[in-house]
Amino acid sequence: MANLIPVSYKLLKGMNESLVIRIIKEKGAISRADIARYTNLTPPTVTNITKKLIKDGVIVEDTMGESRGGRKPVLLKLNPGYFYVVLAHISSNHLRLDVSDLDTNVLASKRIKLSDKSPEAVLKNLFALYRQMVDQSGVPEDKIAGIGVAVHGLVDSERGISLYAPNLGWRDVNLLESIKAELGIEVCVENDVRAMAMGERWYGAAKGVDNFLAVKVGYGIGASAVVDGKLYTGITHSSGEIGHTTIDVNGPKCSCGNYGCLEAMASERAICETMSKRLKLGEKSIIKDVDDVDIEDVYRAANIGDELAIDVIKRISIYLGIGIANLINLFNPQLVVLGGNIIKVKDIVKPVLEDVVKQRALDNTYRGCKLVMSNLGDDATIKGAHALILSHLFDM
């Protein structure tokens, strides 16, 4: 399907317009004088660029700013309806798809369980959901400029290929080509934890922070490093596999084949397995299904004071703290953001993590580093997909 969106934004590559748009997106409503200050462009250059961007409909004049001694400045912001984007998150068990404007206002959203995880079935679901959500949003299809896709596992973001997604059973799935051929729009594909990191940097706990780590704990465990404001991916797009660092050489066998990996000892899968074992040994809990423990039941039990659930979560938090301390020693970051489903029990997890990290991270590397919980919750990855597709479209 041909895309009929105005193409002026595609002509911004390599030009100062991209820089101006990035500053407006990062800072929110902002004056022309502040744009000049942040970009080091001259005021006349900023005036010319913003005049063109207003004419093209990319940005709009907003409210009046605070005066610094003269007239109140007119603030500029992105035009939320200049075009729209679709955001997809393919996790181990679910597919979520949102339709959003440039301000991350969600116009339609749906999450479905993946019963068939083959690439063909997942893409078929994605295309059907895409058309359903675009129709539900009321956005004309020719106003959809692109789709940002965050997917579990190793991802070559340059080529848009899912290299290896173990929980989906995928190897070398070219998502970019398949999606672009079907939908005829721009496509950006990234690993879900790296997408989460960008969501936190643009919209969440790491907003404006150039050097930080994001750690996501769910069915698996992953990490992402942002260095000097850019994602670090590694030479084979495999960075951040903290879940497969060894915590205990005598620990349980991991899905990767090694023993004592962090993921085998501190993921949600590990929480459920530990709960099941201890329940079978006769320990008391409000959870009664000893053979099929559900992580949401564990979190609910812990949050209402179930002693066994709390103890299990505290114990896995010790292992998680060791893994995070190792990362801090390696990267010396300004900030570590913990996200994923585990933040549902953040009041139990965070004090343990802080104690362990304080004990195990070197004083010099940990000094000045903050450990924070994601404030985006389940939306961190999808907001990261938003950040990534906008960066791609505006060449930011």
UniProtKB/TrEMBL annotation:
SMART domains associated with the record: HTH_CRP
HTH crp-type domain residues: 17-77
Chain coiled-coil ranges: none
Pfam families per UniProt: HTH_24, ROK
Keyword Kinase: yes
GO biological process, one term: D-xylose metabolic process
GO molecular function: DNA binding; kinase activity
Superkingdom classification of source: Bacteria
The entry's keywords: Carbohydrate metabolism, Kinase, Transferase, Xylose metabolism
Similarity field: Belongs to the ROK (NagC/XylR) family.
Function text: Transcriptional repressor of xylose-utilizing enzymes.
Protein name (Swiss-Prot/TrEMBL): ROK family protein (Putative glucokinase)
